[in-house]
Here is the input.
Amino acid sequence: MDPFVSHLGLVVPLDRANVDTDQIIPKQFLKRIEKTGFGEFLFYDWRYLEPGVLDPSFILNEDRYKGASILVSGTNFGSGSSREHAPWALLDYGFRVLIAPSFADIFRNNCFQNGILPIAIEKSNVDYLLGMASSTKSMGYELEVNLENNILKDEFDFTVSFEIDSFRKESLIKGQDEIARTLLSQEKISKFENNRTSRW
Amino acid sequence: MKKTLFEKIWEPHVIEEIADGLALIYIDLHLVHEVTSPQAFEGLRLNSRKVRRPELTVATIDHNVPTSDRTNIKDPIAKKQIEALRANCKQFGVPLYDIDNLNQGIVHVIGPELGLTQPGMTIVCGDSHTSTHGAFGALAFGIGTSEVEHVLATQTLVQKKPKTMSINVNGELPSGVTSKDLILHIISKIGVAGGTGHAIEFTGETFENMSMEARMTVCNMTIEGGGRAGMIAPDEKTFEYVAEKKFAPKGSNFDRFVEIWKELKTDKDAKFDSVIDLECSDMEPHISWGTNPGQVIEVNSSVPDPSSFDSPEEIDNAQNALEYMGLTAGQKISDVKIDRVFIGSCTNGRLEDLRSAAKIVEGKKINKDVRAMVVPGSGLVKILAEKEGLDKIFADSGFEWRDAGCSMCLGMNPDILSPQERCASTSNRNFEGRQGKGGRTHLVSPEMAAAAAIEGHFVDVRSWF
Here is the structure.
């Protein structure tokens, strides 16, 4: 997993609540046994009119958002299925930061496992970002994310701090393998197992 | 200190506290299927890691499998994924219920059926509907593939301790109104994110009076209300269900377990972070009209006007949903004609569900414009249903009788809707494209789906009782 310390990137607004993981990556693409190559199927039913033909009316396909790495969306982003193919597709497409008023639990955990930073901030702030990223007056709107200081800001006067569990933050910054970390507690796990066997 | 059921399970499973409410917890049972596991096993291989407790891990093949003619899987990518699971189970020593095994089936149907699911356990699976197992007073939740790998390697997970919510329901569900209708109603009340970050305990006489299968339907759909887990305290019905199952404790050992399990209930005066009270005696059958499981109405109602919703997000969601679903505000939902009926899934694919639906269709023919299918939740459900002659009742009325699997709930196998086809489905998600690109899903109970199959449109099934 690539470490995440700070990030500056182009913002794309997907102004819709309850974007579920079936939309992020439809089921027909879950049969692959690799973790890579899902980016071309991201938002498949919204992004393509037919196989290989992009729908020009879908926001990700607009020229001004080419190369975006920060996605701003509505409440309850990533609801539904636990498929980690959703964050794999977002990452493979180029997203490193997701911003929404709230995220679904399983999806949020899956993001952390893949070096994607999900940032939940107040809806009024999300609305501001959606507005800035959509407006024709602010083409090329970028945000800067500093994970060490928990700060999200733009080049105007927008600055908010966001919350993140210290464990998740440290894991992202180090890009650390969670399994390797847990395996450091192996003795505790064995002890737990032994106590349990005798108790049950 | 008074404790909730959740706390009574969570606390003894904590191996170490990490920080900010995160903890390393022990996992008692890990269920595995073909779609969310290949990359996890590959991760183990790349790091030369083993499965720590293969005997606490059980795999089956459910998402991809065809429900007719399984001897030749035509989709080469699906076939490869199934073969990958077989090879992985063999390499890592994980027991597998393969396609030809009578206990093959939807992972959330076979867990309870085999007695793997027991009260007080922590249970995970790379599938959001793992919440189903909470019906036994277990703490059960869905995880992603990286977490699957973590559990395989360590038999533990790093999790944030969820908040607690109690949904307390009293009253008797009227005849023709089921636990499916109740959970759809609950989701419409709390919203699709209402339970986010919470372990939800369903309390009150309505749940106490439900069968285990009905309780499973409720806990199954907890995730559709955003809940991290759904749970119901175990009682005599739970113990009776678990007793004699293949992997249940036996003899005096079972009695010893029951004594422990009896303690698994929320103490009087224990505090939940939030409490919701509902009454269900006047409840009607429910139907989803939109593209998330919170967009639900009663059978005698009309499709809502988007402007009737409070927030701009809800209004926007409703407008999108009406357009996608091909519905008009104000239209009576019972006037809506359907093309397909799907009875099955981890929500409503158990024996009791099939019995209820069979009772409705017995001696009647399905509407000539409807194609209907029954997909039992497991091989065992199929055999037991056939013993009772349910297959014949369904076949006589025009239903297709299939083999076990997830099937049209998510359409990863060949069972899918065509664009604009409208389906009365006993499954759990009505998301855009869920059952096939452009397909239109209406979530209902098995009874409502069966009645709709006969009439060709939605009807109030209560008048059939």
User: Anything to note?
Assistant: Chain A has a mean pLDDT of 96. The radius of gyration of chain A is 19 Å.
